[in-house]
């Protein structure tokens, strides 16, 4: 974990599809032993960015250095240092789990033990099952095994937990933390705020191919919210009574369904007014926080609330 | 899946980077072995590459439904070897490539340390291994049915099998590497069927109506099957037959190298 060299450096990346920019001037930095989360809604350009870094897609403008090397030609020497978990697929339809991990392991000089990896990722029971008969979660864990089996310096994980159950998600998180602790750099894309918040040292929120915000999870959620109280409760509560009970200068609103925001000088008095009002309504105020936005709030404020296809 | 999760699952140092490319020989052997096993374990592919050719070999050698030069089993072996090559190099290859692309295998492999040329060579190696299995199985059954290989003919047979595998392999890669998987499946099976009956494989070119015979002579199926029957019956393939196979290989290979998509 020297931290001296950069694992990934992207400057001014532009990728166009039929003239439209899918990625529009993106900058990224990732150091060894760090986790960078690329967070954004569907179609934000996350996968395109990752594929350029993997050398699987060409770029129109900008500079990319993966472990100091331009991935455009995808030299074999670079690819042997990088692990890739693509989004969906990535195995022969008829290949068995253990065979696929073995195939990718055979490409590496000093791979992890495929049997151990299959066992540890909870795939032992389906080790002889063909890929096409695996559940989506099993396919995803197999893809993860293939990404790390070669002991890479840098790992690209494209939506690693997208269709995993909670146990599977915990497992992946544990793995990412272990990679980080062992000095591996990890770039992961996700649209799960909690995932980015849990794992990343640095979060880059992208939308329409551009960086709309970035920083540590703490700095992103703390910014511009020094006079806020947020809580969750049943959606659509009548706020008039609460508004009248709050001290002068405090307002209350419901910015998103079930998520309430009290703005003003937040003191213990305000806090107790809110909780006792909730108690009178017979609801439990959940996730109650002062002066701290959830990453989801930040995300929605930055990328808008309309649904993306 | 184990969810006991409190003890750390990954000991510190487990993932300490130790990158590097595996030995080329090991990569190639692993890939060829896997491609071969995949081809020989998939029911539909085995039906196409072994069961149907075997059934035709036995059936046509024993039943006189198709006019063929004597010794009958020798002529039939020529037809069946041609069919076996078409099944493996063209139909089976195209279909598996179509679905492998759909499943993202090539992109997956392209993201490992495997050089791209090795991915192609690995596929070809798997194909060659299956053809070898076909030659051995079909040859052994033909021997049991009374085929006696003539001296000198086996060299020509091997040459034609190699040329035919190359020509149909190139066309198969072109088909499987450019169209959607479902379309590949349909086209590859229809073409196989048409070539079997009207492409000079089962029925000799001489038994086909004039205009069709002229076309079939220029098809790789006609050239391969006619050449194999001639070679097995003690003759040699014509220069025309060899040229037809070479031209198809070159043209399809060239077009494929420009149009085939990895995903």
TrEMBL record, chain A:
UniProt superkingdom: Bacteria
Keywords per UniProt: Antibiotic resistance, ATP-binding, Cell membrane, Membrane, Nucleotide-binding, Translocase, Transport
Gene3D superfamilies membership: P-loop containing nucleotide triphosphate hydrolases
InterPro entries attached to this UniProt entry: AAA+_ATPase, ABC_transporter-like_ATP-bd, ABC_transporter-like_CS, ABC_transporter_ATP-binding, P-loop_NTPase
Alphabetical list of Pfam families matching this protein: ABC_tran (PF00005)
Location, primary (coarse class): membrane
Localization annotation: Cell membrane
BP GO annotations: response to antibiotic
GO terms under cellular component: plasma membrane
Membrane topology: Peripheral membrane protein
Keyword Nucleotide-binding carried by entry: yes
ABC transporter domain residues: 8-233
Keyword Transport: yes
Record GO terms (molecular function): ATP binding; ATP hydrolysis activity
Name this polypeptide is given: ABC-2 type transport system ATP-binding protein
Organism annotation: Actinomycetospora cinnamomea
Automatic annotation (TrEMBL), chain B:
Keyword Nucleus part of the UniProt annotation: no
Full protein name: ABC-2 type transport system permease protein
Coiled-coil regions listed: none
Cellular localisation: Membrane
Predominant location category: membrane
Spans annotated as Disordered: 1-22
Pfam families: ABC2_membrane_3 (PF12698)
Gene Ontology cellular component list: ATP-binding cassette (ABC) transporter complex
PROSITE patterns linked: ABC_TM2
Keyword Membrane listed: yes
Topology class, membrane: Multi-pass membrane protein
ABC transmembrane type-2 domain segment(s): 38-263
Biological-process GO terms, alphabetical: response to antibiotic
């Amino acid at each position: 974990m020297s931290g001296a060299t950069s694992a990934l450096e992207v400057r001014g990346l532009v990728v166009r599809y039929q003239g439209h920019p899918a990625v529009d001037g993106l900058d990224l930095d990732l150091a060894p032993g760090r986790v960078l989360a690329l967070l954004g809604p569907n179609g934000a350009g996350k996968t395109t960015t990752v594929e350029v870094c993997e050398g699987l897609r060409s770029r129109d403008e900008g500079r990319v250095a993966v472990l100091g090397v331009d991935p455009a030609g995808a030299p074999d020497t670079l690819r042997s240092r990088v692990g890739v978990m693509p989004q969906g697929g990535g195995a022969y339809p008829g290949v068995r789990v253990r065979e696929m991990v073995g195939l990718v392991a055979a490409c590496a000089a000093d791979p992890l033990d495929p049997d151990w990896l299959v066992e540890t990722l909870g795939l032992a029971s389906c080790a002889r099952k063909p890929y096409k008969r695996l559940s989506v979660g099993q396919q995803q864990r197999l893809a993860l095994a293939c990404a790390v089996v070669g002991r890479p310096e840098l790992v690209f994980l494209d939506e690693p937990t997208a269709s995993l159950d909670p146990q599977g998600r915990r497992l992946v998180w544990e793995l990412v933390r272990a990679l980080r602790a062992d000095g591996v750099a990890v770039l992961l894309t996700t649209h799960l705020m909690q995932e980015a918040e849990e794992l990343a040292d640095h979060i880059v929120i992208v939308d329409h191919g551009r960086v709309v915000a970035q920083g540590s999870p703490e700095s992103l959620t703390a910014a511009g919210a020094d006079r806020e109280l947020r809580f969750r409760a049943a959606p659509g509560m009548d706020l008039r009574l609460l508004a009248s009970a709050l001290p002068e200068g405090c307002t209350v609103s419901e910015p998103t369904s079930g998520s309430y925001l009290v703005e003003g000088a937040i003191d213990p008095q305000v806090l107790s007014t809110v909780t006792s009002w909730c108690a009178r309504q017979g609801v439990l105020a959940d996730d109650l926080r002062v002066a701290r936005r959830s990453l989801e709030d930040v995300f929605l404020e930055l990328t808008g609330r309309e649904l993306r296809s | 899946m184990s969810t006991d999760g409190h003890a750390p699952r990954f000991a510190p140092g487990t993932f300490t980077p130790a990158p590097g490319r595996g030995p080329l020989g090991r990569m190639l052997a692993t890939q060829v072995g896997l491609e071969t096993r995949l081809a020989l374990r998939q029911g539909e592919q085995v039906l196409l590459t072994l069961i149907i050719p075997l059934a035709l070999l036995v059936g046509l050698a024993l039943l006189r439904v198709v006019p063929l030069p004597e010794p009958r089993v020798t002529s039939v072996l020529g037809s069946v070897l041609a069919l076996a090559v078409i099944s493996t190099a063209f139909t089976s290859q195209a279909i598996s490539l179509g679905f492998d692309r759909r499943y993202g295998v090539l992109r997956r492999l392209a993201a490992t340390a495997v050089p791209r040329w090795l991915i192609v060579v690995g596929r070809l190696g798997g194909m060659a291994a299956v053809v070898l299995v076909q030659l051995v199985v079909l040859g052994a059954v033909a021997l049991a049915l009374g085929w006696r290989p003539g001296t000198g003919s086996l060299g020509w047979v091997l040459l034609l099998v190699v040329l035919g595998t190359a020509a149909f392999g190139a066309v198969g890669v072109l088909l499987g590497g450019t169209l959607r998987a479902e379309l590949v499946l349909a086209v590859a099976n229809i073409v196989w069927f048409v070539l079997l009956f009207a492409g000079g494989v089962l029925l000799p070119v001489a038994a086909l109506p004039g205009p069709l015979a002229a076309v079939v002579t220029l098809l790789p199926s006609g050239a391969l099957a006619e050449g194999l029957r001639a070679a097995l019956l003690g003759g040699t393939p014509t220069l025309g037959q060899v040229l037809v196979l070479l031209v198809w290989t070159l043209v399809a290979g060239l077009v494929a190298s420009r149009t085939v998509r990895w995903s």
